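Bumping with the actual sequence this time:
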Amino acid sequence: MHRLLILSPLIMVVLFTGCASIPNGPSVMVLPGEGKSFEQFRVDDATCRQFAFEQIGGVSGQQAAQNSAVTSAVVGTIIGAAAGAAIGSASGDMGAGAAIGAGSGLLLGSAAGTGYASGSYYEAQRRYDNAYMQCMYATGNQIPGYRRSTSPPRSYYPPPPPRY
């Protein structure tokens, strides 16, 4: 029963992170380039999704978030158990101190892991989107807000001085 009380916060974290469903893929809009068929756009899209996935190390945003949350919970538990054992040995009951410290560390590590998980997800998604947009732009597709100019830049000269 005592072990169940210690493991219950970890079980809650695992259950709640399993409920979150973050979409995989780009979160930016890209449109087919001028003169491109939809089929060619789909080929470009598949190629660029693979390119972007490779650029972020083959880990989706959701995987990065889950790894960060679990790592923080584990580290918090280990540090809490060590601190609890040290404090418990001073009071004469190292086992109880370690158990209380592990439980506290798990709770605090899980809470901190939630913030780190969110940051990890957004950073991975941002890097993925940047690589995806670069690839799609390089293959001639349109990214709203960015304009590909086909003509050379214009040079405007000042008007000639007036003649008197």
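The tokens above came from a reply further down the thread. The CA atoms of residues 77 and 105 lie 4 Å apart.
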